[in-house]
Design goal:
By secondary structure, this protein is mainly α. Helix content is 81%, strand content 0%.
């Protein structure tokens, strides 16, 4: 038991890196995903096609490959040639990747709203922007909570991929202790940390779903 307690402090330090990446990714990917979704369903076909190609690329290639590309290959790309430190590289890769997934969720949510509501808003004299902000998007958020919950929980687990960039996240700290102490106990403790984080997120989204269900009743 004393050994497990001794693991908690370094594990928490690693968990802070994990949580930091999670929070920044959410703050960046959700607004970016919403913007991409709005462009995707817009009447500008060239922009819509470009966004569709971007979403296809980000969803069709592994996140780890995107991480490695941004960190190792991006500096050698002509014209761009940007070298990012390890953590900013992880932020860029995760934000761009999850924005693509959120964009598809948002697009489906927006398109699930009955077209009659657009027509009703037009009769009331609302602009397209006002219709989206006041009528469509509030209903969309209610409908997309379950898939957003799934993606958010997946994000917590995907943060473990940053070990390839030698960042001292929760999994890398646990792996170092396993190699040092020749015991799998740190992996079990790390698993408990991940389970705790996903449990909290599950409770939050369940509360939001119940709250919206009460308002819709």
């Amino acid at each position: 038991m004393e050994y497990v307690i001794s693991l908690l402090s370094p594990m928490w330090s690693g968990a802070q890196v994990t949580l930091k990446l999670f929070v920044i990714t959410m703050l960046l990917s959700i607004p970016l995903g919403l913007t991409l979704a709005l462009v995707r369903i817009s009447r500008f076909r060239s922009l819509s096609a470009a966004v569709g190609a971007y979403i296809w690329l980000m969803r069709g290639t592994p996140l780890m490959l995107q991480l490695l590309f941004i960190y190792f290959a991006l500096p050698f790309v002509p014209v761009i040639g940007v070298r990012l430190p390890d953590f900013p590289s992880a932020v860029v890769a995760f934000a761009l990747n999850y924005a693509a997934y959120f964009a598809e969720i948002f697009r489906a949510g927006i398109q699930s709203i009955d077209r009659g509501q657009y027509e009703g808003a037009k009769v009331l004299g609302l602009t397209y922007g006002q219709t989206m902000r006041r009528i469509i998007l509030p209903q969309m958020w209610t409908r997309i909570l379950p898939p957003v919950s799934n993606e958010t929980i997946t994000l917590v687990k995907d943060t473990s991929l940053i070990y390839v960039l030698a960042l001292n996240d929760l999994l890398r700290v646990a792996r170092g202790m396993v190699q040092r102490d020749f015991t799998f106990t740190p992996f079990i403790v790390a698993g408990c940390f991940y389970l705790g984080m996903t449990l909290i997120l599950t409770w939050v989204f369940q509360y939001l779903e119940r709250r919206h269900a009460r308002f819709d009743a």
